[in-house]
Known about the structure:
The structure holds 2 protein chains of 2 kinds. By secondary structure, chain A is of the alpha/beta class. Chain A has helices spanning about 20-30, 55-60, 115-125, 175-180, 205-210, 250-255, 260-270, 275-280, 325-345, 350-365, 365-370, 375-380, 385-400, 410-420, 425-440; strands spanning about 1-5, 5-10, 10-15, 35-40, 55, 80-85, 90-95, 110, 130, 135-140, 150-155, 160, 165, 190-200, 220-225, 235-240, 245-250, 285-295, 305, 310.
Amino acid sequence: MNTNNEKIYFDAIVVGAGLAGSAAAMVMARGGLNVALIERGQKAGGKNYFGGAIYTHAIREVLPDFMERRPPFERPVTEAGFWMLSKDGSLARMTVQGGKLDVEPADAYTASRAVFDAWWTEQAQQAGALLIPKTTVVDFIRDSAGQVIGVTTDRAQGDVYAPVVIVCEGVNNLLTQKLGLIDHDLEPAHMALAFKQVIALPMDTINARFGLPDEKHGVAASVLGDVSMGLPGMGFVYTNKTSVSVGLGLMLDVAVEYRLKPYEVLQRYLRHPVIAPLIKGGQLLEYGAHLIPEGGYHDMPKLYTGGAMVAGDAASMVNALHWEGTNMAIVAGKLAAETALEAHQRGDFSAQTLSHYEARLKEGFILKDMKQYRNFAHFLEMHPNFMQAYPEFINEALEQFFSAYGQPKKRLFRNMLGSLTSRRQLFRAMGDMVSMGRAVMGW
Amino acid sequence: MKTGDAFSIKELLPELQESLPDVYVDDLLVSLKYFIDEAQAHLKIKDHAVCARCQYKPCIDFCPVSVYTLAHDGRIHIAYQACVECGSCRVGCPYKNIEWTLPRGGFGVAYKFG
Lengths: 443, 114
């Protein structure tokens, strides 16, 4: 840090010490830059809430020796998949477990973000980045040509200068809008309002209830069917070491239009005959809520301007179907950082140079996946019942298949078909499958 | 979602509505840690006349921590101290009538688990 005429200068500023921001700070600090990592919370992670997993492929890209640094993961995800709940309390599971999921380090781990993000940020500090907590960035400083040359914060004499700023502000994209990279708030129909409870249970109880041999095994499930009351939404269950994380996401427009109280919808879910026994006797550790930007590719802002780039949730880097987002944030933070390093080498921080950030994103999985799934959000908007009707059908069809009612089997398949057609006309169901396929394949 | 005066609500089927249990949200809020900014509210109503015109006032319901309540005088009261800064009201208010800013640095919700 240099002070000149009482101005505070860094080589680079990162806004937000989340997964993207601390990855960016780590990579730039390691590359020799003086980095200010500005975080509005008391500590990194204190504003973050997720129902989810951290992916090691992304961690490894930034921090190859991460396992030696003892990351505070909860459990590895050794079983992952879909649970489909019926109204009468039956459960159909479509999960995968063991095999490639049961290796160390695992592909994915559950985590507490308040704990994990603090560790992740410590790695950036150890690399040399300066964490400035309890400081909210409110705007940008620009030169006469409009190029970003710093940020203003809510502290007295709180202007901080740097030739490049990486904005990792999260889903509420106030600063990204101020940069002019997107000219509107995201639509409620493109955001999931997710809320959950973290519920404490003894380790052995969790192992027994989820069929896990020990705390080195864990479950991540997306829960469909009788969860979101026939409205677009999805539940989830994640096991931690001594707690479970249980919640659901509803599309925000639905929560608004139906005037749903999220805590009531959550309580209804927690009382479902499949979920209730899993959390029985548990103590509430924490309730919380967060928005997820699920609009996909079409909702992504422009990713750079002169002197600034944007990464993570602020850039709608979420693949809702595959639960991915944490990994995109980390990798995008790294790619923005590499672009900042390149800009320093050239001594050129113009939009022209920072456009290489987008080129880097296109080379890897992030923009390829975002583009391929670009119509998925629209598909779900057009098929609001998709997450309930089909899971309930699968549940009912399996229940019929594996029950002996003493009826001729000829009737069985007619009944199974009836389970489907009572929910969706056959040709519409086939149309749904085609649309779904197109949305996933990106045709 | 339609906005402004064109905003309208949808109704759940009665049996679904009845399947929703009553929840006392304070029982959930006690699990949360906050650093409360007593000096400054980070949420404000832009124009109370707009709220008065808003027929359905969905913010009272969809806010996940029930920051918005209807006061005795018929105005919307904001318990900003309970806010978890999710941003639902910022984009969900049909009239975009909430002046939504982040709390000053260090203030607001401080998740312990997340």
